[in-house]
Design a protein that fits this description.
Shape: globular
Strand content: 15-25%
Number of strands: 9
Helix content: 40-55%
Largest sheet: 8 strands, mixed, barrel
Structural class: alpha/beta
Length: about 270
Protein backbone atom coordinates (compact mmCIF):
# COMPACT_ATOMS: atom_id res chain seq x y z
CA UNK A 1 0.00 0.00 0.00
CA UNK A 2 2.72 2.45 0.96
CA UNK A 3 4.70 1.62 -2.18
CA UNK A 4 1.88 2.82 -4.45
CA UNK A 5 1.84 6.36 -3.06
CA UNK A 6 2.44 8.91 -5.83
CA UNK A 7 4.37 11.97 -4.74
CA UNK A 8 5.73 14.80 -6.85
CA UNK A 9 7.47 18.17 -6.38
CA UNK A 10 5.99 21.66 -6.52
CA UNK A 11 8.15 24.79 -6.33
CA UNK A 12 7.61 27.89 -4.16
CA UNK A 13 9.47 31.05 -5.21
CA UNK A 14 11.88 32.88 -2.89
CA UNK A 15 11.97 36.60 -3.67
CA UNK A 16 14.86 39.02 -3.29
CA UNK A 17 13.52 41.92 -1.20
CA UNK A 18 15.86 44.45 -2.86
CA UNK A 19 15.77 43.33 -6.50
CA UNK A 20 12.22 42.00 -6.57
CA UNK A 21 13.37 39.06 -8.69
CA UNK A 22 12.91 35.36 -7.99
CA UNK A 23 16.30 34.29 -6.65
CA UNK A 24 15.37 30.69 -6.01
CA UNK A 25 12.73 28.06 -5.38
CA UNK A 26 12.07 25.62 -2.59
CA UNK A 27 11.06 22.14 -3.75
CA UNK A 28 8.12 20.82 -1.69
CA UNK A 29 6.50 17.38 -1.77
CA UNK A 30 2.89 17.18 -2.97
CA UNK A 31 0.28 14.46 -3.41
CA UNK A 32 -3.33 14.15 -4.60
CA UNK A 33 -6.20 13.75 -2.14
CA UNK A 34 -9.21 11.49 -2.69
CA UNK A 35 -10.88 14.19 -4.79
CA UNK A 36 -7.81 14.59 -7.01
CA UNK A 37 -6.76 17.95 -5.57
CA UNK A 38 -3.08 18.72 -5.05
CA UNK A 39 -2.26 18.91 -1.33
CA UNK A 40 0.88 19.02 0.82
CA UNK A 41 2.58 15.72 1.65
CA UNK A 42 3.80 17.16 4.96
CA UNK A 43 1.27 15.23 7.02
CA UNK A 44 2.37 12.00 5.34
CA UNK A 45 6.03 12.61 6.19
CA UNK A 46 5.20 13.36 9.82
CA UNK A 47 3.16 10.18 10.25
CA UNK A 48 4.49 7.90 13.03
CA UNK A 49 2.82 4.87 11.37
CA UNK A 50 5.10 4.83 8.31
CA UNK A 51 8.61 3.34 8.68
CA UNK A 52 11.50 5.79 8.33
CA UNK A 53 13.01 3.77 5.47
CA UNK A 54 9.81 4.17 3.45
CA UNK A 55 9.69 7.93 4.14
CA UNK A 56 13.33 8.29 3.11
CA UNK A 57 12.62 6.39 -0.13
CA UNK A 58 9.67 8.70 -0.92
CA UNK A 59 11.72 11.77 -0.05
CA UNK A 60 14.53 10.73 -2.41
CA UNK A 61 11.99 10.00 -5.14
CA UNK A 62 10.55 13.54 -4.88
CA UNK A 63 14.07 15.04 -4.65
CA UNK A 64 15.11 13.20 -7.80
CA UNK A 65 12.05 14.49 -9.69
CA UNK A 66 12.71 18.04 -8.46
CA UNK A 67 16.36 17.99 -9.56
CA UNK A 68 15.46 16.51 -12.93
CA UNK A 69 12.83 19.23 -13.54
CA UNK A 70 15.32 21.87 -12.38
CA UNK A 71 17.97 20.59 -14.80
CA UNK A 72 15.50 20.67 -17.70
CA UNK A 73 14.21 24.20 -17.00
CA UNK A 74 15.58 27.50 -18.33
CA UNK A 75 15.68 28.91 -14.80
CA UNK A 76 19.15 30.08 -13.69
CA UNK A 77 18.68 30.68 -9.95
CA UNK A 78 18.86 28.47 -6.86
CA UNK A 79 16.95 25.39 -5.83
CA UNK A 80 16.47 24.58 -2.15
CA UNK A 81 15.87 20.97 -1.23
CA UNK A 82 14.81 19.84 2.24
CA UNK A 83 16.67 17.09 4.05
CA UNK A 84 15.50 15.86 7.45
CA UNK A 85 18.12 16.07 10.17
CA UNK A 86 16.75 12.86 11.71
CA UNK A 87 17.28 10.96 8.44
CA UNK A 88 20.84 12.20 8.07
CA UNK A 89 21.68 9.94 11.03
CA UNK A 90 20.98 6.97 8.75
CA UNK A 91 23.60 7.95 6.16
CA UNK A 92 26.35 5.33 6.30
CA UNK A 93 28.69 6.37 3.48
CA UNK A 94 29.60 10.07 3.29
CA UNK A 95 31.32 9.43 -0.04
CA UNK A 96 28.07 8.28 -1.64
CA UNK A 97 25.48 10.86 -0.62
CA UNK A 98 22.32 10.35 -2.74
CA UNK A 99 21.88 14.06 -3.49
CA UNK A 100 25.46 14.41 -4.79
CA UNK A 101 24.94 11.36 -7.00
CA UNK A 102 21.73 12.89 -8.40
CA UNK A 103 23.51 16.20 -9.13
CA UNK A 104 26.17 14.26 -11.03
CA UNK A 105 23.54 12.35 -12.98
CA UNK A 106 21.68 15.49 -14.08
CA UNK A 107 24.85 17.57 -14.51
CA UNK A 108 23.62 20.38 -12.23
CA UNK A 109 25.89 23.22 -11.12
CA UNK A 110 26.33 22.48 -7.42
CA UNK A 111 26.71 26.16 -6.51
CA UNK A 112 22.99 26.55 -7.40
CA UNK A 113 21.80 23.98 -4.85
CA UNK A 114 20.96 24.76 -1.22
CA UNK A 115 20.56 21.95 1.30
CA UNK A 116 17.90 23.01 3.82
CA UNK A 117 18.20 21.09 7.08
CA UNK A 118 14.77 20.60 8.63
CA UNK A 119 13.52 19.36 12.01
CA UNK A 120 15.21 19.83 15.38
CA UNK A 121 16.12 16.16 15.80
CA UNK A 122 19.33 14.50 14.67
CA UNK A 123 22.84 14.12 16.00
CA UNK A 124 24.63 17.46 15.88
CA UNK A 125 28.10 15.99 15.28
CA UNK A 126 26.79 14.00 12.31
CA UNK A 127 25.04 17.13 10.97
CA UNK A 128 28.27 19.13 11.17
CA UNK A 129 30.14 16.34 9.41
CA UNK A 130 27.64 16.01 6.57
CA UNK A 131 27.30 19.80 6.19
CA UNK A 132 31.06 19.94 5.67
CA UNK A 133 30.82 17.23 2.99
CA UNK A 134 28.06 19.12 1.15
CA UNK A 135 30.08 22.33 1.37
CA UNK A 136 33.13 20.49 0.06
CA UNK A 137 31.06 19.65 -3.03
CA UNK A 138 30.14 23.33 -3.49
CA UNK A 139 26.59 23.27 -2.07
CA UNK A 140 25.21 25.88 0.34
CA UNK A 141 23.58 25.09 3.69
CA UNK A 142 20.37 26.56 5.11
CA UNK A 143 18.79 25.98 8.51
CA UNK A 144 15.00 25.88 8.59
CA UNK A 145 12.71 27.04 11.41
CA UNK A 146 15.38 29.15 13.11
CA UNK A 147 13.95 30.51 16.35
CA UNK A 148 11.81 27.44 17.00
CA UNK A 149 14.07 26.30 19.84
CA UNK A 150 17.53 26.45 21.40
CA UNK A 151 18.65 23.44 19.37
CA UNK A 152 18.50 25.61 16.26
CA UNK A 153 20.69 28.26 17.89
CA UNK A 154 23.14 25.51 18.76
CA UNK A 155 23.09 24.35 15.14
CA UNK A 156 23.83 27.83 13.84
CA UNK A 157 26.89 28.07 16.05
CA UNK A 158 28.10 24.60 15.03
CA UNK A 159 27.25 24.53 11.31
CA UNK A 160 27.58 28.27 10.49
CA UNK A 161 24.99 28.08 7.68
CA UNK A 162 24.90 30.31 4.60
CA UNK A 163 21.17 30.92 5.00
CA UNK A 164 18.79 31.05 7.98
CA UNK A 165 15.04 30.67 7.49
CA UNK A 166 13.06 32.23 10.31
CA UNK A 167 10.49 29.98 11.97
CA UNK A 168 7.14 30.79 10.34
CA UNK A 169 5.18 30.84 13.60
CA UNK A 170 7.72 33.07 15.34
CA UNK A 171 7.84 35.44 12.35
CA UNK A 172 4.06 35.78 12.16
CA UNK A 173 3.81 36.36 15.92
CA UNK A 174 6.59 38.95 15.64
CA UNK A 175 4.62 41.03 13.15
CA UNK A 176 2.21 41.80 16.00
CA UNK A 177 4.99 43.27 18.13
CA UNK A 178 5.95 42.38 21.69
CA UNK A 179 8.68 39.97 22.77
CA UNK A 180 8.45 37.90 19.56
CA UNK A 181 9.32 41.02 17.56
CA UNK A 182 12.34 41.72 19.79
CA UNK A 183 13.52 38.11 19.38
CA UNK A 184 13.30 38.25 15.58
CA UNK A 185 15.29 41.49 15.50
CA UNK A 186 17.93 39.91 17.75
CA UNK A 187 18.08 36.81 15.54
CA UNK A 188 18.50 39.03 12.49
CA UNK A 189 21.41 40.86 14.13
CA UNK A 190 23.00 37.52 15.05
CA UNK A 191 22.66 36.35 11.45
CA UNK A 192 24.37 39.48 10.16
CA UNK A 193 27.27 38.99 12.57
CA UNK A 194 27.75 35.41 11.37
CA UNK A 195 27.48 36.38 7.68
CA UNK A 196 24.19 34.54 7.12
CA UNK A 197 21.38 35.67 4.88
CA UNK A 198 17.86 35.78 6.28
CA UNK A 199 14.77 34.31 4.62
CA UNK A 200 11.37 35.19 6.08
CA UNK A 201 8.91 32.35 5.50
CA UNK A 202 5.14 32.62 5.81
CA UNK A 203 4.90 36.12 4.31
CA UNK A 204 1.16 36.43 3.69
CA UNK A 205 0.32 40.15 4.00
CA UNK A 206 1.81 43.53 3.15
CA UNK A 207 2.46 44.00 6.89
CA UNK A 208 4.44 40.73 6.98
CA UNK A 209 6.60 41.97 4.12
CA UNK A 210 7.19 45.36 5.76
CA UNK A 211 8.14 43.70 9.06
CA UNK A 212 10.61 41.50 7.19
CA UNK A 213 12.20 44.59 5.66
CA UNK A 214 12.45 46.25 9.09
CA UNK A 215 14.34 43.15 10.30
CA UNK A 216 16.80 43.41 7.44
CA UNK A 217 15.63 40.21 5.74
CA UNK A 218 17.13 39.81 2.28
CA UNK A 219 14.63 37.23 1.03
CA UNK A 220 10.89 36.61 1.36
CA UNK A 221 8.78 33.52 0.77
CA UNK A 222 5.04 33.01 1.21
CA UNK A 223 1.49 33.19 -0.08
CA UNK A 224 1.69 36.99 -0.55
CA UNK A 225 3.54 36.08 -3.73
CA UNK A 226 2.67 32.49 -4.51
CA UNK A 227 2.03 29.04 -3.08
CA UNK A 228 4.16 26.19 -4.41
CA UNK A 229 3.39 25.68 -8.11
CA UNK A 230 4.27 23.01 -10.70
CA UNK A 231 6.26 25.35 -12.98
CA UNK A 232 9.08 27.92 -12.73
CA UNK A 233 8.07 31.53 -13.41
CA UNK A 234 9.93 34.27 -15.28
CA UNK A 235 12.45 35.79 -12.77
CA UNK A 236 10.93 39.32 -12.88
CA UNK A 237 7.34 38.08 -12.42
CA UNK A 238 6.92 39.75 -8.99
CA UNK A 239 9.14 42.80 -9.54
CA UNK A 240 6.29 45.31 -9.88
CA UNK A 241 4.56 43.96 -6.76
CA UNK A 242 7.80 44.15 -4.74
CA UNK A 243 8.50 47.68 -5.98
CA UNK A 244 5.05 48.80 -4.81
CA UNK A 245 5.52 47.12 -1.40
CA UNK A 246 8.91 48.78 -0.93
CA UNK A 247 7.51 52.24 -1.80
CA UNK A 248 4.72 51.82 0.75
CA UNK A 249 7.27 50.71 3.36
CA UNK A 250 9.43 53.78 2.64
CA UNK A 251 6.45 56.13 3.00
CA UNK A 252 5.46 54.56 6.33
CA UNK A 253 9.04 54.69 7.61
CA UNK A 254 9.43 58.34 6.64
CA UNK A 255 6.10 59.19 8.26
CA UNK A 256 7.23 57.52 11.51
CA UNK A 257 10.56 59.40 11.46
CA UNK A 258 8.79 62.72 10.83
CA UNK A 259 6.46 61.98 13.74
CA UNK A 260 9.48 61.29 16.00
CA UNK A 261 11.19 64.50 14.96
CA UNK A 262 8.00 66.49 15.57
CA UNK A 263 7.57 64.83 18.96
CA UNK A 264 11.15 65.70 19.99
CA UNK A 265 10.69 69.23 18.69
CA UNK A 266 7.52 69.67 20.76
CA UNK A 267 9.30 68.45 23.90
CA UNK A 268 12.14 70.93 23.33
Amino acid sequence: MHQEKKLFPYFQPIIGAASGTIIGYEALARQHDAAGRVISAGELFSSPDIPADQLIAWDRMVRRQALERFSQSNYNGYLTINISAAWIDKVSDLNALPTIMMLNEFNIDRSRIIIEITESKGDLDKLVEIAAVYRGHGLKIAIDDFGAGFSQLERVMAIQPDIIKLDMQLFQNATRGGIASDIVHLLSRLAKRTGCRIVCEGVETDEDFHFGLSCGAQYMQGYLFSPAMPEFKEPKHYQQQISSLRKTFLKKTLAKEEHKIQFISNIK
